Task: structure prediction
Amino acid sequence: MNTWIAIGLTVLGCYAVKLAGLLVPAGVLERAFVRRLATLLPVALLAALTAQQTFADGHALVLDARVAGLGAAAVALALRAPFLLVVAAAVVVTAGVRAVGG
Amino acid sequence: MTAGDADKPDRAVVRDALGVGIAVGLSGFAFGVTSAGSGLGLLQTCVLSLLVFTGASQFALVGALAAGGSPFTAAAGAFFLGVRNAFYGLRLSQLLALPRALRPLAAQWVIDETTAVTLAQPTRRARRIGFTVTGLTLYTLWNLTTLLGVLGAKAIGDTRAWGLDAAGPAVFLALLMPMLKTAAERAVAGLAVLLGLGLLPVLPAGVPVLAAALAAPVVLAAQDRRARVRRGRPGARAAADRGAPREPRAGSGPTAPETPEPETPEEDQ
Result:
């Protein structure tokens, strides 16, 4: 049930902001501070999410095979690999490190 | 594709749009697998792709739920990630000049990739074709591959053993890296990582990510303070702020950040 509540809220919220962009008159959201905040907000969220999903195990911080996987993804990104290859690199290296006992 | 050639053939627009739509649409597979691995059911996962349809928010939501976050903090994180779509919509509504009746439908396709393709087109006709073809291709494939991902995850059982728990953070990293162009963006990312990890042991699941979002206004405020001090030298900060121009690039999840900033940010000073 909790999952469905979360899904329902996300559906409504994400659709509402998409529609708002198309419906509100320009100028309302065009203030410089608001626009810069909108550019930086995803940066903050994505950085925190990347770090947490790499190092978190519940409420504890751990170093496990995911770190190697994310390292591989970072290398793939630096080499300008396509998106799917970046994700595949992370998955394969994480699985590999776990297989050898990481 | 060169902006400015006013008579760009429709075929070229369709080809650009298909390239982005197909490459990114296929990555719904990673979402399906991650969502199933996070404990969501087939119906729940498919509803997310059908009705939320903005990849970073979807990944964030299932990650937060898997970590044991409350539905409200989980949804809040997903919502804040989706807020940028409002700014894409602003720009697109000017460029596409959609009839009012169509807007509620078109809204669902207002995401990074459709914006990137649309902004790259030289004429209104090309923009409308680019938006529609990218949206349709991406929406169809993203939902199909989400379904396949869930089925695939069920078939292979323990997704962790296959390293699939690394798919989510890899997606976030791939979205994040192209956004780190200016000093402000890197400062926000660094501060957010510190907040997100530092608060993890002490706050309820899902809340540290929301707290990490505060890195954005904090850095902005610090930047404005510095700008006021330096007010005598206009231009210096504006140039640093803008960073490199953003080129739309195929292949990054329906949340790719490579979308152009709608306009050059004006300084509020």
In short: The CA atoms of residues 3 and 120 of chain B lie 6 Å apart. Chain B touches chain A through 111 residues (CB under 8 Å). Residues 10-177+246-255 of chain B form one domain. Confidence is low (pLDDT under 50) at residues 236-269 of chain B.
